Amino acid sequence: MATLDQLIVWAIVGLIGGSLAGRLYAWDKQGLGRVRNLALGLAGAVIGGLLFRIFGILPDLDRISISLRDVVAAVVGAFLVLASIWLWTKYSAKAP
């Protein structure tokens, strides 16, 4: 179970990772917007953290500190979320 400290770190890392992913995706100064960047970053931080932990990439991601490896995991996870949303909209639009 995550502690309050870990949730705060995830929110901060998610905000940073979501902002980076949104800006890289949209090539705009504001990215996808503050709320969408935060949601994207939080989902990316959870998914990226889980995937990196499962595959043993960048160990010690659950420390209560903000590091570059946490942000990298959040950005990778955010891009996976963006790719899944893109695939969902692409294939659900073709369905009758």
Give me the secondary-structure topology.
Layout: H1 4-26, H2 34-55, H3 68-94
- How does the major sheet shape up? none
Q: Tell me the fraction of residues in β-strands, as a range.
A: under 5%
Helicity, in percent? over 70%
Low-confidence segments? none
Helix and strand content put the structural class at mainly alpha
The overall pLDDT average reads: 78
H/E series: HHH
Number of helices: 3
Notes on the protein architecture:
Helix content is 75%, strand content 0%. It has 96 residues and is mainly α. The chain has one domain. Helix 1 packs across helix 2, helix 1 packs across helix 3 and helix 2 packs across helix 3. The radius of gyration is 14 Å and the shape is globular. The termini are far apart. The mean pLDDT is 78.
Keywords:
mainly alpha; 96 residues; 75% helix; 0% strand; single chain; 3 helices
Concise overview:
With 96 residues, the chain is an all-alpha fold. It is built from three helices and no strands. 75% of the residues lie in helices and 0% in strands.
